[in-house]
Amino acid sequence: PGLLLLTSFLLHMKAGRASPARLLCDTRLIHKYIGEAKDMEKRASQCQALPPLTCPMVLPLVDFSLKQWKAKTNETKRREILCELALLVGAATGAQAEVTQECAGRQLSLLQRHANSFLLLLQTFGWEATPQEPGCSPRSMEHAQLAGIFLTYRQLVQGKLRFFFHDLAKDTCE
């Protein structure tokens, strides 16, 4: 599914500029990914009781003020989301190394694929920065519960990513 997202976006890019076209204008796509994030979170919560992680994972704090968000440029929003996605992928990778339960491991693997797809997608917009740029240090907090990774991913997709795509669509769609 993640590769499909990236492929779909790349196929619908306008030539000469890295701006999304028709696909960005179809809000059903982001709602599909919000639904999938909710499903991953639900399925992970239905796995057998998981012990706390022995090494707490650092997760980005993805809450935001809509007023402050609207005041940012699309490039600033993109960089912020890239940093948070990179931190989230790192946490999921670290947790996956610790989790031995197949059920939770499957959901973590799915989350990693989706988050990596969003990382690649946002990098293709190519305004200027990469997630490893200096100053890429999102607000964060340590979590020892696996559920925190799924919650953070869902909140990021449901919040900043949805609003970011909405903002891009306003500039792109008629």
TrEMBL record:
Organism: Nothocercus nigrocapillus
Swiss-Prot/TrEMBL keywords: Disulfide bond, Glycoprotein, Hormone, Secreted, Signal
Residue runs in coiled coils: none
Family per similarity comment: Belongs to the EPO/TPO family.
The keyword Glycoprotein appears for this protein: yes
Keyword Glycoprotein: yes
Pfam families attached to this UniProt entry: EPO_TPO
Gene: Thpo
Principal subcellular localization: secreted
Domain of life: Eukaryota
GO molecular function, one term: cytokine activity
UniProt GO BP: cell population proliferation; positive regulation of ERK1 and ERK2 cascade; positive regulation of hematopoietic stem cell proliferation; thrombopoietin-mediated signaling pathway
Residues making up the signal peptide according to the UniProt record: 1-18
Protein name: TPO protein
Subcellular location, record wording: Secreted
Gene Ontology CC entries for this record: extracellular region
InterPro entries, per database record: 4_helix_cytokine-like_core, EPO/TPO_CS, EPO_TPO, Thrombopoietin
